[in-house]
Every structure is written in C-alpha cells, then in structure tokens.
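Technical annex, item 7. During the second reporting period the consortium partners agreed on a shared format for inverse folding records so that results from different sites could be compared directly. Each record opens with the tokenized structure and is followed by the designed sequence. A conforming record, contributed by the partner at site C, is shown below for reference.
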C-alpha cells in the first residue's frame, strides 16, 4: 500500500469536523471516520495482510491520521458543548422574581372525623370528659356488665363478630362506661367516641361504624337533666331553633329508656317543603330520630358497687348515637356507605 493514501481521508475528515454544527453531528462523523466499519479502522485491521516491507509505513501513517482525527473531534466537541450550554442557559433562564406555583393542597380530615371532633367539642363545653377504650373487648364488659342477659339476641353470631368464646369486636362503646366507673368514683361525666362493629350492611348500616356514647352519674340527676343536655347538643349541632322530643323506648342498660328525635331542619319541623310536597328527610313526620338514651338501670351499678356506685345514693343517664348518622343527616349524604367508599368527588366537598 503506497504512502500517502490516507491524505484524502484526513483532508475530508478535517473539513467535515470543522464545519460540524452540533455535538450530534460530530458523533456521526466519529462513527463515519473512526467507527468499526470506517475505512481507517479496516486499514489498520488489514495491515497484517500487506507485504512486510509496507506494514511499518502504512501502520505508522494510519495511526497518525487516527490520533489527529481523535484530537480534532475532542477539541471540536468541547467547543460545541460549551456553545450549546450557553444557548440552553440563555433560553431556559428562570425569572426568580415571578410568583411561584401554589403548593398542592395538604388534604383535610374525613367528614366522619370532622363530625366526631365537633361532637366532642360540644360535650366538652357541657362539662364532659372524652375517654376511649379497646375495640377488641371481653363479653363481660360488652354485654354482662351492661345488664344484657345471656340469651339476648345482641349476643348471637347474627349480630356480633366473635374472635373467641368470650372475646369480640365491640358492638358499642358502652363497655367504657363500666371500665370508667371501675376506675373512678362518682360523680362521672364522660363521652366515649370510637369505632364499633356489627353484622349490618345496607344504605343506613355498615359492618364498621362510629358511635359516641355518654354517661353522667351524680346525685339527684333526673330525666330532665338528660333532656336538657341533649337539647343543647341538638341545637349546637343542627341549629339554635331545633327542638327535641322523647319517646318511650327499651334498652337493657337503661330504665326508663327513651328514643330522642330532633325537629327536622330540612322543613323546619313542618313536615312539608315550601312547595307543599312532603319533606323527604323526615318523611312528613317533622321529626328525625337521632339517638337512644335513658336513666342508668340500677342493675348496672351492681357491677361497680365496689367503686362507690350505690343506686340508693346516685343516679345517672346514658345515651348513644351514631357519628356517621349525624354526619349523614347534617350534610345531606344520601347513603351511609358513601362515607367509606373514598370517592374524592364526595370527600372534597367537605374540605376545611
């Protein structure tokens, strides 16, 4: 192979490298002149096939051309990278004096949690303390100590989630009434919010829901005190113009027992709307049931007699209501199950 055969290749490459306008174009030239299939690379690989007297001069010239092209490519690449960086910095410049984007919302309490806190605040204002208890409970505290006999339907598997013979998921937060009286002598004024579990599932019942129960035991407490407390609660929760009514009811741990209704806040206690149609919320009755209550049955005090609860000296009342139901009624949610489906279209309506 005669000397100087690489001059044309060197000249062509130098011209192309000098005129390259971008680093991408330079990469293409590197592959073209120095890549595995390039003429220069193929020549270096085939030196062994040349006559011995030509190998030295051809190899030397080919390697010199290769080094020169590598040097030119490196210099031109460095220059073009600097130019491209300057261009990007100029085009992508950020004006730090412009206002920043607003931060994403941090979220808010679930409607049930909001309602629970509102209810707690109301009863704290009425002089009650807030206590909590275990969700996995003993049969004794969930039923026996609350005067619920062994054959009562509430104890059956149809209504209760049992974990063992005497252990279950609590069906109400009332067990903390007994637990609290065991630890504290009268007087006692407490409300107990929390999750409870029953085998129910429909538009107004779910297997897991939230209750708030209350207990007040002191000397000379009467049914009128219960009525006054619940009237203040109803007005604080549903509006200052609300009224309540007590209806005879039955609960194993209260005697007498009363169901409590609040005057309808949709139709203002009339039973019909402005257009004369029947109110869909109270179904024309003008009243909405919100809770059950009554005077504590003297038999309940027998389980905490050692803590000073003598039915001849103290009296008290107890009440219980569904936090989810209160939220549903106050905010017009049509189906209780919607509160637990995590649909943002519903939940975002009740942000702070």
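Designed sequence (site C submission):
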């Amino acid at each position: 192979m005669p000397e100087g055969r690489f001059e044309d290749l060197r000249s062509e490459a130098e011209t192309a490298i000098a005129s390259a306008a971008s680093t991408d174009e330079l990469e293409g030239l590197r592959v073209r002149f120095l890549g595995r299939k390039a003429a220069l690379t193929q020549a270096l690989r085939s030196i062994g096939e040349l006559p011995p007297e030509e190998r030295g001069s051809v190899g030397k010239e080919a390697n010199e051309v290769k080094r020169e092209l590598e040097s030119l490519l490196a210099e031109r690449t460095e220059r073009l990278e600097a130019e491209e960086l300057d261009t990007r910095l100029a085009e992508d410049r950020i004006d730090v004096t412009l206002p920043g984007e607003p931060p994403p919302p941090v979220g808010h309490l679930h409607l049930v949690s909001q309602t629970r806190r509102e209810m707690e605040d109301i009863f704290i204002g009425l002089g009650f303390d807030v206590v909590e208890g275990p969700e996995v409970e003993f049969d004794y505290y969930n039923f026996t100590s609350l005067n619920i006999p062994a054959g009562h339907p509430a104890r059956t598997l149809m209504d209760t989630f049992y974990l063992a013979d005497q252990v279950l998921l609590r069906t109400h937060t009332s067990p903390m009434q007994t637990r609290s009286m065991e630890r504290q002598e009268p007087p006692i004024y407490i409300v107990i919010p929390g999750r409870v579990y029953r085998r129910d599932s429909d538009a107004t019942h779910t297997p897991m829901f939230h209750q708030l129960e209350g207990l007040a035991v002191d000397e000379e407490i009467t049914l009128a005190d219960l009525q006054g407390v619940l009237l203040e609660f109803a007005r604080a929760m549903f509006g200052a113009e609300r009224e309540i009514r007590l209806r005879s009811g039955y609960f194993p741990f209260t005697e007498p027992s009363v169901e409590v209704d609040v005057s309808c806040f949709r139709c203002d206690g009339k039973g019909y709307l402005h257009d004369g149609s029947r109110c869909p919320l109270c179904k024309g009755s003008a009243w909405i049931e919100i809770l059950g209550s009554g005077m504590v049955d003297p038999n309940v005090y027998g389980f905490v007699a050692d803590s000073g609860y003598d039915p001849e000296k103290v009296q008290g009342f107890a009440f219980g209501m569904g936090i989810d139901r209160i939220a549903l009624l106050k905010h017009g949610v049509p189906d209780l199950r919607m509160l637990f489906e995590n649909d943002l279209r519903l939940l975002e309506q009740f942000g702070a």
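The chain has eleven helices and ten strands. Strands lie at 129-130, 136-138, 162-164, 167-169, 188-197, 208-218, 244-251, 254-263, 287-296, 315-322. All partners now use this format for quarterly exchanges.
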